Amino acid sequence: MSQGYKEPDYSGINxxxxxxxxxxxxxxxxxxDPSFLIQDNGAEYVFAEDxxxxxxxxxxxxxxxxxxxxxxxFSGGVWGVMEGLRNPEGxxxxxxxxxxxxxxxxxxxxxxxxxxxVALMYGCINAAIETGRGVEDEYNSYASAITAGALFKSxxxxxxxxxxxxxxxxxxxxxxxxxxxxxxxxxxxxxSQPSWA
Length: 197
Hints:
Layout: H1 57-86, H2 93-133, H3 138-152, H4 158-184
Helix pairs in contact: 1-2, 2-3, 3-4
């Protein structure tokens, strides 16, 4: 080099041993036994009170709003496709395709927006009931679903209010019953291998 610096000598780097005595499978990069990194003590938390925490009402509400919006967009799009295929308007292919796409864009956002609004109502009502009662259980979700269904259909008259409340309560009961049935069999929604007897 022109500045008088000496080049580092890396010729002896191949002589460094990455295996210590007593271990069979060491990580060649870190020179540690990887079995030390695996701990089956369950979840680890920074603070002890973190084990009792769960997602906040905003996180739960916005994940349900987003997932129901996407499900509504997809279901409404399928509804629009079926409607466009059943009643094609026009004789040429382009006019029929336009009719099909119009059905998708009419029904998809309609169903997606309605489901998202119901999910938003349910989330807000559920958070208010949980705060008011100070307890988090399935009765909160029953009351929230009934109230959200009734509130969603509140402008359509008393019959529609009863139908909306009944549908909301039925869906909450069906979800709760299926969840209890699934969990009583030793299965959780997140595991992939069923352990049914």
